[in-house]
Amino acid sequence: MDAIVARLFKWYDTHCRELPWRSTRNPYYIWVSEVILQQTRVAQGHDYFVRFIERFPTVESLAEAPEDDVLRLWQGLGYYSRARNLHAAARQVVSMGAFPRTYESILSLRGVGEYTAAAIASFAFDIPKAAVDGNVCRVWARLFGVDEPIDTARGKQMVSEIAQTLLPCTAAAKYNQAVMEFGALQCVPKGPNCEVCPLSDKCVALATGRVGQLPAKSHKTKVSSRYFTYLFIHTDEALLLHKRTGDDIWRNLYELPLIETSEPLSFDALLQSCEFAQWRTLLPGYTYKSCVDGVKHVLSHRLLYTTFYELLVEEPLPNPDGFVVVPFGELDNYALPRLIEWYLENKTEKG
Question: 126 to each of 43, 119, 123, 236, 306, how far by Cα in Å?
């Protein structure tokens, strides 16, 4: 076992990437980086991390900020519940008087799970707790030939026990970083270069021809489909936006007026729909300008089939309850889902 860790450390010393959250023991910085890197590639997460820390350099500054400011800075990363939880947990930390310094107390923060708590505890305080993410599961499942699906309680427990058993008590931070980096760069999900792997002679998956089959999973998550029709209602100077208030992943983000149906809406069907009736009375003078259809947007467990209809309106814009009139020059002040941001950017570029 010690030989495996020694080889990992040697590999890590040569191949580790220089990242800003690795050169600090500040638990706040480490926490922010871990939350950003959930469901986000390092290359993309790096710039978001830098901007986030520049805007909120301390946990106190994050706690004091309005949620809209936090969501706007998060725009484009997706999974906005991460930002909301981070913001709420920052207020927890401030109420505690200092950042918690034990695994259990870190785990008590809103939105912090076992992996994130272990990562913060080990990276910031060298607490000997193994951090087990997808990269770590893949490394140990292949190396030790774990057949149990890692998306089951037993499979997770088996991998976690291996990771904890191998962890050297005096180098928890380096150990966790090394295993995660090894999974990210060397023991990758598809087509790993096993010929140059420093652990190839000890890998059960390689010896039994199962590198492509491990780690095993019991099932794939079912993806549901939804059909969105957005109305880009605007004048030459401003547009209408609506703030989502429902309990979903886009809560408190701003979007264009939305009609959700069981199937895509043609423009003729839109005009005949009950959902469009309120707009028909509010828009006495409009010109149908364009349509962008067939847009697929993939979310966690959901596939959105989206159509955008552009309606140019005579002054002034209507302002029904729940909607805001936003000058185009002030769009940067509103946090938008990436789908809406993409559409508006595309319209702006094309004029």
Answer: 26, 9, 6, 57, 47
103: left (phi over 0), alpha (psi -120 to 50) or beta: alpha
What the block records as the tokens of 293 is 């259809």
- Give me 272's structure tokens: 């005949």
- Residue 286 is predicted with a pLDDT of 87
Q: What is the pLDDT of residue 252?
A: 86
Q: Is 237 a catalytic residue?
A: no
- Record the tokens describing residue 149, joined without a space: 């699906």
The strand pairing partners of 254, in sequence order, are 243
Task: Give CA–CA dist 10/138, Å, rounded.
Answer: 20
pTM (two decimals): 0.82
pLDDT at 15: 96
Rounded alpha-carbon distances, angstroms, from residue 186 to 46, 165, 212: 20, 22, 14
Q: Provide the residue ranges of all domains of the chain, joining segments of one domain with +.
A: 2-207, 224-350
The token duo for 102 is 């034990």
H runs (alpha helix) in the chain:
2-15, 27-36, 42-55, 59-64, 67-74, 81-96, 103-107, 114-125, 134-144, 153-166, 172-185, 204-207, 267-272, 277-282, 338-350
C-alpha 271/C-alpha 280 separation (Å) is 8
Q: Distance between CA atoms of 230 and 71, rounded to whole angstroms? A: 21
| Count of Cβ atoms closer than 10 Å to residue 267 Cβ | 13
54: three-class secondary structure by DSSP: helix
Beta bridge partners, 226, equal 304
Helix (H) or strand (E) holding 324: strand 323-327
Indicate which residue of 18, 34, 60, 330 is catalytic: 34
Architecture of domain 224-350: Alpha-Beta Complex (3.90)
Q: Which amino acid is at 147?
A: D
Q: Which CATH number fits domain 2-207: 3.40.50.1100, 1.10.150.130, 3.40.50.720, 1.10.340.30?
A: 1.10.340.30
Mean pLDDT by 10 residues, the chain (351 residues): 90 95 95 93 93 97 96 89 95 96 97 96 96 96 95 93 95 96 96 95 95 88 85 93 82 91 86 86 85 84 89 86 91 90 78 52
